[in-house]
Write a structure and sequence with these properties.
CATH topology of the largest domain: Alpha-Beta Plaits
CATH superfamily of the largest domain: YebC, transcriptional regulation domain
Order of helices and strands: HHHHEEHEEHEEHEHE
Largest sheet: 4 strands, antiparallel
Radius of gyration: 18 Å
Number of helices: 8
Length: 242
């Protein structure tokens, strides 16, 4: 399956392991607060919280800081209401871009996001205008350890219930149905694998190539979007060739 998968050429703007390491604590703190408020402070019974804790650890956030954030989210931060808002639009080169946000002020967020789309020659669309171009998939990024045999790890992932598997440098990318994400991740952990990140993501059904000039504009656009504290994830249909 590896090397022939329709997902094997999916290379988003940044590798998921790198993106996790670069994620700001502000954004992860918001995710922790939302996860705790929705499902409680116990990661054993709150799958979403487990996902965010994995992301925090991959970003090298100390465990003490993670636990402090969880406690705060159970207390005074419980009064802060972060809402999910999703924006869809066309970016440089006609790219299809979906921006997921967590915000306590939707008016501010939509203004900031619209400004960046306009500034970089794009346009913000209506809800649902581009969502059909993407599939929701559980994505688990696993560290590739010295001595790991790719075929053996692939079979372990498939036996755990994964839909697809690919090797991307020093990590494995394992895809699941969204409903199977928690089960697959738990099984991989039982087998001693180091989970760098795990969550449901939007993967484009087909990808486009941009000219070198358009690609530079696109990458600058995405970088500016990701610098916004309200922005959690940016997905697109651009093959960055990474």
């Amino acid at each position: 399956m590896s090397g022939h998968s329709k997902w094997n050429n999916i290379k988003r703007t940044k590798g998921k392991a790198d993106a996790a390491k670069a994620a700001s604590f502000t954004k992860i703190g918001r995710e922790l607060a939302v996860a705790v408020k929705a499902g409680g402070p116990d990661p054993n019974s709150n799958a979403h919280l487990r996902d965010v804790i994995d992301k925090a650890k991959a970003a090298n956030i100390p465990n003490d800081n993670i636990q402090r954030s969880i406690k705060k989210a159970s207390g005074e931060l419980g009064a802060i209401n972060y809402e999910t808002a999703v924006y869809e639009g066309r970016g440089p080169g006609g790219s299809a871009v979906i921006v997921e946000t967590l915000t306590d002020n939707k008016n501010r967020t939509v203004s900031d996001v619209r400004h960046l789309f306009d500034k970089h020659g794009g346009s913000l669309g209506t809800t649902g205008s581009l969502a059909f171009m993407f599939d929701a998939k559980g994505v688990v990024i696993v560290e590739k350890r010295a001595g790991d045999d790719d075929d053996t790890v692939m079979m372990q992932a498939l036996d755990a219930g994964a839909e697809d598997f690919s090797v991307a440098g020093d990590v494995y990318e394992i895809l699941t149905a969204p409903a199977d994400l928690d089960k697959v991740r738990a099984e991989l952990k039982k087998q001693g694998m180091n989970i760098l990140s795990g969550g449901v993501e939007r993967l484009a059904k087909t990808y486009i190539n941009l000219s070198p000039e358009e690609l530079v504009k696109y990458e600058n656009f995405v970088e500016k979007l990701e610098e916004l504290d309200d922005v959690q994830n940016v997905y697109s249909n651009v093959d960055t060739g990474e």
